């Protein structure tokens, strides 16, 4: 493999820092000016993201003109200890470029939407401050030129995510959900830290170029360790098995947050991390297999649970878990599939953001209710939301010519192309996942917009204002067209990063996969439509065990409780007992001993000058005597 | 051409200038007492003292880099006054610390007319005593302080035992008197002065006896000569041992090491608080400056002989000071015992000899700033006219005077040696140096002692913040710019030396070599 090096940034590319600075300044101004900026703060938030988007576009086109398609920008030294130098440097290459466009582009639309969505909320300025903070951190994550910078962004988005999930912190559920997300991510982040430590230990650097160039010299064990540790971190941030439980709870945050952070951008950071570290992951077949298994397992897991949920946002959240599973599957397959993972990520960014914003629009109309059993027949009342939601629905289930078709089918094809029985297993899982996706998304769509009205008495649905529908329409158009546009152009654009894609031929041909997928999708969607065309029960009925298991998140919570919560509680009470009896006992005993000695010895301090003089005299005698003893010896 | 120059005597006047300035200012202060009208004496005395000390400091700065003796005859050095790195650094430290101490002495807002009376020997609570208490405070304290400070500056550069003895008495006598000048609680103040005087005289006798023994052994009182004699003297070594022992007793008395420490709590408590501050900061610098010089220059060749007994004393001092401090209920006594424990830590630096000279000096400077500020705060917290020194009275101070409580907290944390304060950097660098000198055992005892000592300091912090104030809680008097400057300077130095100690560590590093070692 060729030596990896990054050319220094020139021209507009040397403004990469401004990309981060714009939203960061926005966040700082909004937080520091306090109530004074309540009136115009949200527009500042929108403007900084708009500016960042414009700059990202300019940098994108400037990058396209470069020969080696990369720009490295050194800012300053963060840390210099011994032989280890950690620089604050930014790397703008095709991979970070598409992420920048996604983050600022979709981010801009969602910011605009949020101006309308958050209008009734007194904390709107604070919301936009955190929102800008998130964008700044996310841009650091994807622009960082070494693992340390990525980690700073990684933790930054974690913080912003925490702040925004529990934005309505007065709601106990929101506060708990924020804490859960934060803690789960901390556990996974230990993987990231350990991976960095391993890199420093083995290679003495955390620079992308340094790590990738040195990766070939690593022992199998070390590369396996780094790969698995990074995978753990990625699973945490992206809500993949076994860290999936925090993501659905994160829907307690305001809907624009769910759209931007917990669907379009932050949760895809794990995919970014693996794609960025493709050199390490490609080294070791075992790591790749691990990624593939995580992806396949999670995509089924999410899809199954998604079928049993009745909360519009939670269904979408589980579908996010499932779709990111597809992306993990793709980047785990390696080779040309890296690029497939990225285009599915981009397409997903559009249609899932659109779906979430659509669900927000529906909630707006329905007094913030989220129970799809009490919706129905909304298509007449809110045609724009309906149309855009439909575009998103068709895109996610992957029917021609919507974007999912162009991005999901190749992944399924490549999964089938894996060697031996693994190909059949993984490909089968991906195909089954597609059928399930079609089923639960159709169920969601039909129960929300079609069938009889099952509204509660006090709701009066209405279409949302233009500031919310315009972004919806734009994202809907993206869901329609983006797939076809990206299917060939993006893999080509990413070639400098991942290398020349090569055609894989496996168990099934492209045509066979396309036909099979289309058939199962149509079947799944048809079944969903048929079963739920007349609505559903307003309260859940007793059901067979698979449904009950899916309703209970397939036991994810129970596992957490049994495996982590109960032992932790035990350990906590044991340490309290230990602290109270043993440690405190020893400490108190020691303190009493010292105090007693002190009181007893202080009797010597009589206050009489004669006894003080005696003390000096005896001291002198002892000193002389001691010196004599030394002499005699 | 005068006679001295004819005899080939050369005098480094610039090198002597710091001491000359201080002594001249001290005599000038006496003249001020006699000539300037009473109303204006305070202003004149304070300005005179501060300007003189600042000038002395400037003179020390100009002397930096010198490495020789102040007197030479026909090119041959006479070692009575030695101008070398440690001597100059300690002189500079003394000048700065005593400027701060003088400002504290000059505080007049917290008690009307100041904390001092003019005559120490008037029978307490007699009619004459009551009359002098009603008067505005005495201004004789300033020349007295200057004499003491001049003595200290001489003590740290004295290169022979005789000069050192003169300096020792010069610094001690004014201090005995100053201790007895407290305006409140006259009786206890007089008691303190008398105790300090009697025991000080006792210790001086040891000094003279030890000096005589060493002269008998070495045939000289010059420190370098004594060191040389330790190698090649034909006299019985018995003289050396008795001499070392007696000398050590006298100097450890001034340094307040166990078992020569017993005067410390009584005197610290009885003396007027500003004088206590002067003793805790400046006398400690002088005493350890002298100890460092005597042991590094004069007794290095017999190190093996005294190493064990000094180690025992250091251990006793560290543990004793800390253990006694645990049960103290009076803030001044607490600080007195803490000063004893700190003397123990500093003794580690003496025992480690050349490895730790610089770090010991850093410790002295850092501790000096912190402890002066601590006593300054003590003088601000008052029950009516008297200082509220009982710790129970400090409960809940954080609620009523958060500013003062924050200052006390910072100082206590520094004394306890927590990071980001000078207490931590000082202890850390001193213990590190001691480890390099293979004094692991002493360092372990030092750390244990610090841990014990942290308890009483933190108890004060807990009292300040977590206890409810008493209904008749003491008031914190707003200090005049005088004491205000003292507190501010102490706290700033404490934090500065904790956060960025580099510049001072560099200085002490360069100034850590004695002449003739």
UniProtKB/TrEMBL annotation, chain A:
Output a single Gene Ontology CC term carried by this record. endomembrane system
Domain annotation NADH-Ubiquinone oxidoreductase (complex I) chain 5 N-terminal: ranges: 79-128
Q: Which residues form the NADH:quinone oxidoreductase/Mrp antiporter transmembrane domain?
A: 146-427
Could you tell me which InterPro entries the record lists for this protein?
A: NADHpl_OxRdtase_5_subgr, ND/Mrp_TM, NU5C-like, Proton_antipo_N
Q: Localized where? A: Endomembrane system; Membrane
> What's the main place this protein lives?
membrane
Q: Which GO terms describe its molecular function?
A: NADH dehydrogenase (ubiquinone) activity; NADH dehydrogenase activity
**Membrane topology classification:** Multi-pass membrane protein
Q: Which UniProt keywords apply?
A: Membrane, Transmembrane, Transmembrane helix
- Pfam families per UniProt: Proton_antipo_M (PF00361), Proton_antipo_N (PF00662)
**Transmembrane spans:** 12-32, 44-66, 95-115, 127-145, 190-212, 218-236, 257-275, 287-308, 315-339, 384-404, 424-446, 467-490, 510-532, 609-632
Q: Name one GO biological process term.
A: electron transport coupled proton transport
Q: What PANTHER family does the entry give?
A: NADH-UBIQUINONE OXIDOREDUCTASE CHAIN 5
Please identify the protein, giving its name as recorded: NADH-quinone oxidoreductase subunit L
Q: Which organism is it from?
A: Glycomyces algeriensis
Taxonomic lineage is:
Bacteria, Bacillati, Actinomycetota, Actinomycetes, Glycomycetales
From TrEMBL, chain B:
- Record keywords: Cell membrane, Membrane, NAD, Quinone, Translocase, Transmembrane, Transmembrane helix, Transport
Q: How does it sit in the membrane?
A: Multi-pass membrane protein
| Location(s), subcellular | Cell membrane; Endomembrane system; Membrane
Q: Does the keyword Phosphoprotein belong to this entry? A: no
Q: Give the reactions, separated by semicolons, that this protein catalyses.
A: a quinone + NADH + 5 H(+)(in) = a quinol + NAD(+) + 4 H(+)(out)
In terms of InterPro entries, this protein maps to:
NADH-Q_OxRdtase_suN/2, ND/Mrp_TM
Superkingdom of source:
Bacteria
| One Pfam family this sequence matches | Proton_antipo_M
* UniProt name for this protein: NADH-quinone oxidoreductase subunit N
Please name the source species.
Glycomyces algeriensis
What gene name is given for the protein in this entry?
nuoN
């Amino acid at each position: 493999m060729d030596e990896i090096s990054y050319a220094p940034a020139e021209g507009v590319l040397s403004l990469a820092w401004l990309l981060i600075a714009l939203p960061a300044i926005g966040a700082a101004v909004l937080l520091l000016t306090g109530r004074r900026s309540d009136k115009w703060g949200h527009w500042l938030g929108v403007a900084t993201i708009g500016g960042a988007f414009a700059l990202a576009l300019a940098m994108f086109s400037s990058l396209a003109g470069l020969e080696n398609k990369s720009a490295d920008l050194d800012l300053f030294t963060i840390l210099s200890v011994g032989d280890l130098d950690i620089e604050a440097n930014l790397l703008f290459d095709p991979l970070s470029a598409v992420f920048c466009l996604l983050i600022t582009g979709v981010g801009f639309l969602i910011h605009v939407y949020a101006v309308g969505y958050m209008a009734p909320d007194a904390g709107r300025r604070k919301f936009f401050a955190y929102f800008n903070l998130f964008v700044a951190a996310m841009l650091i994550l994807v622009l960082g030129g070494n693992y340390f910078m990525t980690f700073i962004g990684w933790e930054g988005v974690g913080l912003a995510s925490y702040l925004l999930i529990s934005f309505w912190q007065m709601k106990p559920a929101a506060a708990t959900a924020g804490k859960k997300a934060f803690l789960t991510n901390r556990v996974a982040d230990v993987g990231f830290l350990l991976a960095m430590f391993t890199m420093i230990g083995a290679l003495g650097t955390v620079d992308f170029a340094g790590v990738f160039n040195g990766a070939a010299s690593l022992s199998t064990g070390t590369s396996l360790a780094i790969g698995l540790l990074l995978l753990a971190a990625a699973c945490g941030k992206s809500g993949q098995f076994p860290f999936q439980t925090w993501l659905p709870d994160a829907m307690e945050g305001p809907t624009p947050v769910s759209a931007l952070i917990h669907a379009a951008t932050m949760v895809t950071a794990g995919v970014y991390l693996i794609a960025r570290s493709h050199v390490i992951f490609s080294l070791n077949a075992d790591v790749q297999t691990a990624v593939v298994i995580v992806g396949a397992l999670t995509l089924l897991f999410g899809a199954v649970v998604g079928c049993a949920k009745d909360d519009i946002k939670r269904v979408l959240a589980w579908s996010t878990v499932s779709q990111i599973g597809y992306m993990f599957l793709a980047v785990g397959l390696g080779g040309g599939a890296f690029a497939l993972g990225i285009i599915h990520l981009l397409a997903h960014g559009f249609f899932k953001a659109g779906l979430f914003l659509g669900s927000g629009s529906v909630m707006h109309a329905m007094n913030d209710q989220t129970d799809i059993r009490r919706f129905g027949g909304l298509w007449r009342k809110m045609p724009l939301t309906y149309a855009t939601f439909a575009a998103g629905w068709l895109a996610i289930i992957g029917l021609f010519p919507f974007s999912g078709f162009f991005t999901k089918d190749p992944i399924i094809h490549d999964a089938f192309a894996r060697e031996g029985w693994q190909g059949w297993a993984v490909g089968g899982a991906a195909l089954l996942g597609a059928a399930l996706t079609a089923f639960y998304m159709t169920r969601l769509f039909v129960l929300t917009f079609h069938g009889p009205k099952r509204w509660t008495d006090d709701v009066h649905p209405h279409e949302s204002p233009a500031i919310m529908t315009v972004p919806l329409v734009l994202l809907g158009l993206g869901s329609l067209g983006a797939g076809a546009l990206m299917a060939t152009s993006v893999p080509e654009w990413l070639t400098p990063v991942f290398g020349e894609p090569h055609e894989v031929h496996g168990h099934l041909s492209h045509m066979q996969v396309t036909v099979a997928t289309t058939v199962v999708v149509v079947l799944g969607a048809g079944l969903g439509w048929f079963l739920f065309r007349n609505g559903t029960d307003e309260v859940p009925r007793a059901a067979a065990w698979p449904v009950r298991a899916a309703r209970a998140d397939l036991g994810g919570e129970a596992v957490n409780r049994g495996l982590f919560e109960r032992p932790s509680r035990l350990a906590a009470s044991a340490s309290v007992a230990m602290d109270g009896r043993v440690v405190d006992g020893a400490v108190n005993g020691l303190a009493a001993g010292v105090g007693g000695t002190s009181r007893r010895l202080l009797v010597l301090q009589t206050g009489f000058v004669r006894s003080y003089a005696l003390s000096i005299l005896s001291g002198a005698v002892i000193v002389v005597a001691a010196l004599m003893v030394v002499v005699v010896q | 051409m005068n006679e001295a120059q004819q005899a080939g005597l050369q005098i480094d006047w610039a090198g002597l200038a710091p001491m000359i300035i201080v002594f001249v200012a001290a005599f000038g202060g006496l003249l001020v007492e006699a000539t300037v009208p009473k109303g204006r004496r305070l202003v004149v005395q304070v300005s005179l003292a501060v300007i003189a000390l600042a000038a002395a400091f400037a003179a020390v700065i100009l002397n930096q880099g010198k490495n020789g003796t102040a007197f030479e005859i026909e090119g041959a050095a006479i070692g009575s006054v030695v101008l070398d790195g440690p001597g100059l650094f300690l002189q500079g430290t003394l000048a700065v610390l005593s400027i701060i101490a003088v400002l504290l002495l000059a505080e007049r807002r917290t008690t009307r007319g100041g904390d001092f009376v003019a005559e120490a020997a008037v029978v307490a609570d007699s009619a004459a005593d009551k009359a002098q208490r009603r008067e505005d405070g005495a201004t004789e304290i300033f020349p007295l302080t200057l004499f003491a400070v001049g003595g200290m500056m001489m003590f740290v550069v004295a290169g022979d035992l005789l000069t050192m003895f003169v300096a020792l008495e010069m610094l001690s006598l004014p201090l005995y008197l100053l201790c007895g000048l407290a305006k409140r609680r006259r009786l206890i103040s007089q008691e303190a002065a008398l105790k300090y005087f009697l025991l000080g005289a006792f210790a001086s006798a040891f000094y003279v006896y030890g000096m005589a023994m060493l002269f008998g052994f070495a045939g000289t009182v010059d420190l370098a000569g004594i060191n040389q004699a330790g190698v090649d003297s034909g006299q019985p070594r018995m003289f050396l041992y008795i001499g070392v022992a007696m000398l050590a007793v006298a100097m450890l008395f001034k340094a307040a090491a166990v078992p020569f420490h017993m005067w410390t709590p009584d005197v610290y408590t009885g003396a007027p608080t500003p004088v206590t501050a002067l003793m805790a900061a400046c006398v400690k610098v002088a005493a350890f400056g002298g100890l460092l010089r005597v042991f590094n220059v004069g007794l290095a060749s017999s190190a093996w002989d005294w190493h064990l007994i000094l180690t025992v004393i250091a251990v006793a001092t560290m543990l004793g000071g800390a253990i006694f401090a645990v049960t103290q209920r009076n803030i001044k006594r607490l600080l007195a015992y803490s000063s004893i424990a700190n003397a123990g830590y500093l003794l580690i630096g003496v025992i480690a000899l050349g490895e730790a000279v610089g770090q010991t000096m850093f410790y002295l400077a850092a501790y000096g700033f912190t402890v002066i500020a601590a006593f300054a705060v003590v003088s601000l917290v008052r029950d009516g006219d008297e200082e509220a020194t009982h710790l129970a009275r400090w409960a809940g101070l954080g609620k009523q005077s958060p500013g003062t409580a924050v200052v006390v907290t910072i100082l206590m944390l520094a004394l306890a040696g927590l990071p980001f304060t000078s207490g931590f950097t000082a202890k850390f660098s001193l213990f590190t140096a001691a480890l390099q000198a293979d004094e692991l055992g002493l360092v372990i005892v030092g750390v244990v002692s610090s841990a014990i000592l942290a308890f009483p300091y933190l108890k004060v912090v807990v009292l300040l913040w977590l206890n409810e104030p008493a209904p008749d809680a003491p008031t914190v008097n707003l200090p005049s710019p005088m004491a205000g400057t003292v507190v501010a300077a102490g706290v700033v130095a404490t934090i500065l030396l904790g956060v960025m100690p580099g510049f001072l560590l560099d200085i002490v590093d360069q100034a850590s070599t004695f002449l003739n070692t």
